[in-house]
């Protein structure tokens, strides 16, 4: 690391002249840090610097070994380079250097800066090649005596722990001991000086941390997974060498840092097989990686950027038992507690005490296994003395300090008989910066969550993929796992297991619904949009503002948005918003008529106006017509009125939309030093308004949100991270576009549109029309080349989007966004199905937390956690399609229907719903859900008493009607009768059955009234009546359940004759 540049050079006017030297000292940094150095020395001389009159620092010769010396750290901190075999003596008015001619020529460039900023003289003692330097040392000793403040013996500060190396330093150390000086150790002074980092130092630490965590995430973890998947035998030392090479070549993992500025902090450490050492001095042995069941692998890597260190350590668990999982969860919680205690003003010991408190509370038996400290300070040295995170360190934390928070459990006893797994150790380490308000974990890119480090193997699978994380209960990814579809003893079929799970879900769902309804939590509907009163629309405040009349003809005042009409010789103004419609026509005599109709309260389709209630006695002008001989003028007036009316309506609509928006925080733009994450050439949906040519824009991820903007200054959208409910990334596979989609908590305005869904996309293929006409051959070279170009373009776009998504996910993984739980979700195409959610057929795809359709507009985004139940309707033999009704937990929200789903998708949908713990029911009919939900919310206690959602259970319904002829006949609209003598309107409003045959029913109503009943119908009616009354042996519970089903249209109701002797008129089927 000798003569390595600091990597942050300033412009040429702030550098020393280069001459023939390849190096240049950053004079801005030198001046700033020299001032800090002398200020710290003067302010803390007695406490930290041993009351020294001079500070003598000797830097040893260069070495290939990794070592951390305070003398080298001072060189790099002050000058940006390490100066081997150089002696520096700092005095109050002078700085003396004893070095070679080459080093002296470089150090000579700081002479003017030292004189200017601190009025300090630089004195050079150039040692000849064959000179031992003793004469020059005597000159430096005399200078110390002459500038000493002590009357008798000057006090000289030195770094006592650094043993002299080389002839020059050994001679210097010998003469210093024998000279007439009192020596004092100043190690603590330098430790405190280096503890708080400035902005440029923190930048170096963050770059080093980014490299370290990127190597762990993108190299070490995939490498381990590949070794385990292929069951290779690889030694720890071999892994160490490969990882070290990945650090020294950042381009291998796509990290854009110059290799010449990068180095390792220590050889990477890999440990497994029961041999663990959690000390920083540990090393990787030559044993093979051990990854059998209940084994543990510890990986620790550290890298340096411009000599500034960073560190990260992770523990990976394989088929871990309950003891290991519990210990890891406690360790993770303890480390997070230690990191959380790193706040300015706290004592250093607070971090370790916080970790111990967690272990004592959650796992007191593990306290003895906990490491004796929670880490150390880190920076130019891997372990900065004075900042050890132990229980006794009373130093105060300050903003800008950097710490390596390392915590572990040593030699945990595991309940196994294998000698390589009976003792395991766990270790977690991260690089943390003490911030103004909260600590910043700069190695958070590398995940340490249990789901990302705990692997499990399923040896029974024939096609075993790479080790997978243990799935969460509600994770859709578990859909492909056989364990979720079969019991352990393999005795039950998939359908039986699903039926049992659904029965348990039904019980849980009814209990949950009962609790929510008992607490009045049926949800709140959305607020209705406020309508602006026409009383607020004022064209002129007084008569004097009217424009001077020219002629008695219709005039348009576009500035004041008014129409002036000649009425009885006076020009009467009307605001254009009061106009409902305007039209013109021309008769055979070339006479033109213009007709203006105004909005009048009380007329059909007229918007509600508060003034109609305020001025109930007012008289309104409804319509006015004028005749003219000038058709050109009439045509122009009509056109202007329509244009002006459209503009005002658009403006008022946008104003009303904005009035309901939730106020959001302001977007904080990324600083100049940290460029925002950017994705270019994107289209947006919904598009911006306006009639100009549409333009692509750029999406940027800033400090607390996204900003999309085009080259037009008025086309800009800000999406804050806190307002994002779901984020989706859908690469182009069978579609024409690759997209990013954001579903928001609160509406925002895109142009003049209010929306909760914003999408950014790129078309991966251009629409091309063949001009040649005829069909082209499949072996046409031009055709093949064109297809290859399209594939390459699609792959490049998908890769650009994927890189953007990965970087944003890493950003969201930082501690400040922990509460948002944000991550880009990707649709699972293999679980998708076709259906009609709105008006057109679309391909609907589940994700881990939603059900989405993101190609066709309007978009469909359904949050799975908001679903109460799903009812699969029109399910039966012979049906090609069925419908899905999604009932939300908010009963005031309309039920969402997805129609015309192919029956071939039924089993897949059932399996997906069961895997995601969503209770589903099946019915042969379409239900009218509004009155059902109204009945539930009006009397929730009755709903709960009658069994909750079990009235939808088709199996129970069928079992109750096994002896019925109807149960085998399916749904026949002609059999549905009204159970009361109410009129048609009441019957319509209470009908719970929907049908697609409304027109046919209307045409048959009259004929049905005139017909009498056949013997079969009378027999069926008697059978229905018997079932409705129930046998005497029926239990009370069965009768209640039967009554509940009857009230919701599941069973047939008894038929009643009308007074005319015919069948009563049937209600319309909706």
From TrEMBL:
GO molecular function: nucleosome binding
Keyword DNA damage carried by entry: yes
Superkingdom classification of source: Eukaryota
Residue stretches making up the FACT complex subunit SPT16 N-terminal lobe domain: 25-190
GO biological process, one term: transcription elongation by RNA polymerase II
Domain FACT complex subunit SPT16 middle intervals: 554-708
Keyword Glycoprotein: no
Keyword terms, alphabetized: Chromosome, Coiled coil, DNA damage, DNA repair, DNA replication, Nucleus, Transcription, Transcription regulation
A single cellular component GO annotation: FACT complex
Subcellular location: Nucleus; Chromosome
Region (Disordered): 482-528, 957-1070
Domain Histone chaperone RTT106/FACT complex subunit SPT16-like middle, chain residue ranges per copy: 833-923
Bias (Acidic residues) ranges: 957-969, 981-1009
Compositional bias annotation for Basic and acidic residues: 488-515, 1010-1032
One Pfam family matching this protein: PH_SPT16
Task of the protein: Component of the FACT complex, a general chromatin factor that acts to reorganize nucleosomes. The FACT complex is involved in multiple processes that require DNA as a template such as mRNA elongation, DNA replication and DNA repair. During transcription elongation the FACT complex acts as a histone chaperone that both destabilizes and restores nucleosomal structure.
Sequence similarity: Belongs to the peptidase M24 family. SPT16 subfamily.
Subunit relationships: Component of the FACT complex, a stable heterodimer of SPT16 and SSRP.
Protein name per Swiss-Prot or TrEMBL: FACT complex subunit
Organism: Dillenia turbinata
């Amino acid at each position: 690391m000798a003569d390595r540049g600091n990597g942050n050079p300033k412009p040429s006017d702030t550098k020393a002249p280069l001459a023939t030297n390849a190096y240049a000292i950053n004079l801005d940094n030198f001046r700033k840090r020299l001032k800090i150095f002398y200020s710290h020395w003067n302010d803390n001389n007695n406490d930290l610097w041993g009351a020294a009159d001079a500070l003598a620092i000797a830097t040893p010769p260069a070495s290939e070994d990794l070592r951390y010396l305070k003398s080298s750290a001072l060189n790099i901190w002050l000058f940006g380079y390490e100066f081997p075999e150089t002696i520096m003596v700092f005095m109050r008015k002078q700085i003396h250097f004893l070095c070679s001619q080459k080093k002296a020529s470089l150090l000579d460039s700081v002479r003017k800066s030292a004189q200017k900023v601190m009025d300090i003289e630089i004195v050079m003692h150039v040692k000849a090649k064959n000179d031992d330097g003793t004469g020059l040392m005597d000159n430096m000793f005399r200078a110390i005596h002459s500038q000493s403040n002590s009357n008798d013996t000057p006090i000289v500060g030195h770094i006592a722990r650094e043993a002299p190396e080389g002839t020059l330093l050994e001679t210097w150390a010998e003469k210093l001991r024998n000279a007439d000086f009192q020596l004092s150790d100043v190690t603590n002074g330098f430790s405190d000086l280096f503890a708080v980092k400035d902005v440029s130092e923190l930048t170096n630490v963050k770059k080093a941390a980014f490299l370290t965590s990127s190597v762990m995430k993108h190299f070490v973890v995939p490498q381990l997974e590949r070794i385990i998947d292929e069951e290779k035998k690889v030694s720890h030392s071999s892994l160490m060498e490969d990882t070290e090479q990945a650090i020294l070549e950042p381009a291998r993992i796509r990290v854009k840092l110059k290799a010449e500025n990068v180095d390792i902090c220590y050889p990477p450490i890999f440990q497994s097989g029961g041999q663990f050492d959690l000390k920083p001095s540990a090393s990787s042995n030559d044993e093979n990686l051990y990854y059998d069941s209940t084994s543990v692998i510890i990986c620790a890597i550290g890298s340096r950027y411009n000599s500034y260190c960073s560190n990260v350590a992770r523990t990976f668990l394989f088929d871990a038992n309950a003891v290991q999982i519990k210990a890891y969860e406690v360790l993770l919680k303890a480390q997070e507690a230690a990191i959380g205690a790193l706040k300015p003003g706290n004592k250093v010991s607070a971090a370790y005490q916080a970790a111990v408190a967690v272990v004592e509370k959650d796992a007191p038996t593990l306290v003895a296994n906990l490491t004796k400290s929670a880490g150390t300070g880190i920076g130019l040295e891997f372990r900065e003395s004075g900042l050890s995170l132990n229980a006794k360190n009373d130093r105060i934390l300050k903003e800008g300090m950097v710490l390596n928070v390392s915590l572990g459990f040593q030699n945990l006893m595991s309940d196994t008989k294998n000698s390589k797994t009976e003792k395991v150790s766990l270790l977690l380490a991260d690089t943390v910066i003490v911030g103004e308000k909260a600590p910043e974990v700069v190695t958070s890119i590398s995940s340490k969550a249990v789901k990302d480090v705990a692997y499990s193997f399923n040896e029974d699978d024939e096609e075993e993929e790479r080790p997978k994380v243990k799935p969460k209960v509600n994770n859709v990814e578990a859909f492909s796992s056989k364990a979720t579809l079969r019991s352990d003893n393999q005795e039950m079929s998939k359908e039986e297991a699903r039926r049992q799970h659904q029965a348990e879900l039904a019980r849980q769902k009814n209990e949950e619904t009962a609790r929510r309804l008992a607490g009045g939590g049926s949800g709140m509907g959305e607020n209705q949009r406020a309508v602006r009163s026409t009383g607020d629309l004022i064209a002129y405040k007084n008569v004097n503002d009217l424009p001077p009349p020219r002629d008695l003809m219709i005039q348009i005042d576009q500035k004041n948005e008014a129409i002036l009409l000649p009425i009885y010789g006076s020009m009467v103004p009307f605001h254009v918003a009061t106009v409902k419609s305007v039209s013109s026509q021309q008769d055979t005599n070339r006479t033109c008529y213009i007709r203006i109709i105004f909005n009048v309260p009380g007329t059909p389709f007229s918007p509600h106006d508060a003034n109609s209630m305020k001025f109930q006695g007012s008289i309104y002008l409804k319509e006015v017509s004028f005749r003219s001989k000038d058709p050109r003028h009439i045509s122009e007036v009509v056109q202007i009125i329509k244009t002006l009316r459209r503009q005002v309506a658009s403006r008022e609509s946008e104003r009303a939309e904005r009035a309901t928006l939730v106020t959001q925080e302001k977007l904080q733009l990324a600083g100049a030093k940290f460029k925002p994450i950017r994705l270019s050439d994107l289209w947006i949906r919904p598009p911006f308004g306006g009639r100009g040519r549409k333009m692509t824009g750029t999406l940027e991820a800033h400090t607390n949100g996204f900003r999309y903007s085009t080259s037009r200054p008025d086309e800009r959208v800000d999406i804050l991270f806190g307002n994002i409910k779901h984020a989706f990334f859908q690469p182009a596979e069978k579609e024409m576009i690759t997209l990013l989609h954001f579903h928001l908590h609160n509406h925002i305005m895109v142009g003049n549109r209010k929306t909760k869904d914003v999408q950014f996309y790129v078309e991966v293929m251009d629409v091309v029309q063949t001009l040649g006409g005829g069909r082209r051959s499949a072996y046409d070279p031009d055709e093949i080349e064109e297809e290859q170009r399209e594939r390459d373009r699609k792959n490049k776009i998908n890769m650009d989007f994927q890189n953007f998504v990965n970087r944003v996910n890493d950003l969201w993984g930082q501690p400040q966004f922990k509460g948002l739980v944000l991550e880009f979700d990707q649709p699972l195409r293999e679980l998708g199905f076709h259906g009609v959610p709105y008006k057109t057929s679309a391909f609907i795809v589940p994700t881990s937390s939603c059900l989405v359709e993101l190609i066709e507009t309007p978009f469909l985004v359904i949050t799975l956690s908001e679903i109460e139940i799903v009812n699969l309707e029109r399910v039966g033999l012979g049906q090609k399609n069925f419908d899905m009704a999604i009932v939300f937990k908010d009963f005031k929200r309309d039920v969402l229907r997805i129609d015309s789903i192919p029956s071939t998708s039924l089993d897949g949908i059932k399996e997906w719903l069961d895997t995601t713990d969503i209770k589903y029911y099946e019915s042969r009919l379409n239900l009218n859900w509004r009155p059902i939900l109204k009945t539930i919310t009006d009397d929730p206690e009755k709903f709960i008493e009658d069994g909750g959602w079990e009235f939808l259970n088709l199996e129970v319904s069928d079992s109750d009607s096994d002896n019925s002829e109807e149960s085998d006949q399916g749904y026949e609209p002609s059999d549905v009768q009204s159970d009361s003598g109410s009129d048609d309107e009441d019957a319509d409003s209470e009908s719970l059955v929907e049908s697609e045959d409304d027109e046919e029913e209307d045409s048959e109503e009259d004929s049905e009234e005139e017909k009498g009943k056949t013997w079969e119908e009378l027999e069926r009616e008697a059978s229905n009546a018997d079932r409705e009354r129930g046998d005497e042996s029926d239990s009370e519970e069965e009768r209640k359940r039967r009554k509940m089903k009857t009230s919701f249209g599941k069973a047939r109701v008894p038929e009643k004759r009308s007074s005319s002797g015919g069948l009563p008129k049937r209600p319309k089927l909706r």
